[in-house]
Design a protein that fits this description.
The structure holds two protein chains of two kinds. Chain A has helices at about 20-40, 50-60, 80-95, 105-115, 205, 225-230, 245, 280, 315-325, and strands spanning about 10, 15, 20, 40-50, 65-70, 95-100, 120-130, 135-140, 145-150, 155-160, 180, 190-195, 210-215, 235-240, 270, 290-295, 305-310. Chain A is of the alpha/beta class. In chain A, strand 4 (about 40-50), helix 2 and strand 5 form a beta-alpha-beta unit. The longest helix of chain A has 17 residues, at about 20-40. Chain A starts with 7 loop residues before the first strand and ends in a 9-residue tail after the last helix. By secondary structure, chain B is an alpha/beta fold. In chain B, the strands form three sheets. A nine-stranded mixed sheet of chain B has the order 11-10-9-12-8-1-6-7-13, with helices on both faces. In chain B, strand 9 (about 140-150) and strand 10 (about 155-160) form a beta hairpin. The longest helix of chain B has 16 residues, at about 35-50. Chain B starts with a strand and ends with a helix. The mean pLDDT of chain B is about 95.
Amino acid sequence: MSLAGKPLVVAVAEHGPEGLAPVSLELAACARELAQALGGEARLLVLGDGVEPLASEAARLSGLTVTGLEVPGLTEFSGEAYRALLAELLPAWSPAMVLAAHTTSGLDWAPGLAMRLGVALVSGVEAIEHGESGPLFRRAAWHGKLSELVEAQAEPLVLTVQPGSFPALPPAETPGSVEVLTRELPPCRARVRPGQAPLERDAALGAASVVVAAGRGVGKPENLEPLRRLSALFSNAALAGSRPVCDLGWLGYARQVGLTGATVSPRLYLACGISGARQHTVGMQGSGYIVAINNDPNAAIFNLADVGVVEDLNAFIPALLELAGAGPGREG
Amino acid sequence: MRVLCLLKQVCEPESLFDLQEGRPVLRPPARWKMSSYDEYALEAALALKDARPDTEVTALSLGPARCEAVLERALGMGADRAVRLDDLDETIARPLAVASAVAAWAEGQGFDLILAGVMSDDAMQGAVGPMLAELLGLPLATGAVELALAEDAKSLTAQREMEGGRRQEVTLPLPALATINSGPARPRYPTLSKLLKAKETAPLVIDPTAPAPPLEAVREYRLPVKTRAGLMLSGDIQAKASRLLDLLRERALL
C-alpha cells in the first residue's frame, strides 16, 4: 500500500548518455496497466546526478508522477548504488510492485533488490493477465517455444519487463508532477566508468526497405553467400545477423539486429535460420511483413511471422533463387 | 586463484515436446547441451587460467545425473574440478532456489571469482547470478563481454555491454561475481585427451542444502500467442518457394 492508501506500482527508469531510454516509457505503460488492475497508482522513479531534466522529460512523456532521486556523484549507472538506494527508499513507500527493465542494467539491480526486500522476483515479463486473485505474469520459456504463466505468492514483488512488450503510450496531454528528493551516494565496492562508445551501426541497415537476416541456422559462413544473392534480388536490401552470427564473426557487429544491436522496421524482413529469441525479435518485430524460414516447426520466430516456411534454409534459398531467375545459389 | 563457474544443462533449442496437463514433456530422444552463455562464462574462466596457470577452475552444475555430460565437457575444455549439486528434475528450478543451493555449498570455499552466463538459453531469467552475489555479499557485474584481471590479482575489470551496444567499465575487488554475455571470444572445443581423462573422473556429487522456498510459481504453460497470421506454406520445396515469390510479388515487395 502506498502513502495515500492505494496500491502503488513503481517503475524505475533507465537512462544513458542520450537521455531517457525508450524502454522507460514501456515500463511506464506496463506500470499504468498494473496500477489500473490493482486500483492504485503508477509512479516513475529516476535516479542520477542532475536528474531534474530527466524527471521532467519522463513526466512530460508518460503523464505519470515522477520522483527524481538526485544523487550527487551517480553520473554512471551503478547496480550496487541502485540496490542500496532503492532498498532504503522503497520500504517507506510500501509499493505493491517494483518494475525494472529486463536488460543487463535492470538485471544488475532487480534480483538483488528483491532478495534484500525479501520479496518475489518475476523476470522477463511480456504480458499481464488478470486472474481472480490478481495479476498473472506471462513470460517466455523453453527458448521462446512456450509461455509460462507465473503467479507470485506474495506481494510486494519485483518484476523485470521484457523490452518491446508494452508499447509506449503517446505523450500525455498533461505532464505528471515531478518531485526531487536528494540522497547521498552510498559507498560502492564496484567502480564504474563509461566504456567505449557503441559501434557505428551500418547505415545501410537502417535505410534498407528489405532486410535479409541470418541466424545460427545458417550453419556455416559459406551459407551466407546465397543469402547475399537473395538480398541482391531487391533494390534496397541489406544483410543482417542475429547476435550469435556476429559473435561467430560471420558478419560484423555493425550488422547485428536485436536488443544489443540495431532496431529495424523495413517493409520486408526475411528471417533465415533465426530461432526467435526475444533478444533478437525486439529489434525487428515492427517490420512491415515478416517471412521466417526455419527447419524447426516449433521455432518461436513463427509466432510473429506473416509467412512461415519449414525447410532447410540451405536447400530452400537456392530453390528460391532459381525460381526467381537468379540461378541456384552455390552449394557451399 | 580459485574460480567457480556455474553451468546449466538445457535441452537443445530444436527439441520437441508435448504439453501434458499443462506441463512440457520432452519427446525422446532428448538432446541436452551446455547453456550457451554459460559456455562463454567457462571460456572466460579458462582464459584467466591460460594467463595465470595457478588458477583453479571448478565447474558446477545443478540437476540430475544427466547434467554430468555438461561437467564432462567442461573438464574436456580445461576445467580442473567438477561438482554436481544433486537435484531431481524440476524440484529446484526457480532462480532463488538455485542460487540459495549454490550459495550454501560455495560459502566458505574460498572462491575468488564466480562466473555464470548472463541468462540461460531456455528460461532467460538472468536472476541466478545476481541473486547468488547478493546471498554471498559479493560485488557484481552483469553482462560482461571482456574480463581483465589486475596484476596483483586483487581486482577484476569487466567490460559490461549495455543496451544498444554501449559499454561500461566496472572494476570489482575480489572476491566478486560476474555474469558473462556472448562475444568474440568463442568457447574452445574440448580436447580428446582431456575428455578421456574426464570420463575417468567422477564429479563430486553433493546433496544440496534445503533451498529457499519459492515466492512465485508457474501456474501453467501454454503455447505462445501468435502476433501475426503466420501462414505456413505447404507442399514440396519448389511449391513453397513458388508460393513465397507470389506472395512477395502480390505485395509489391519484389
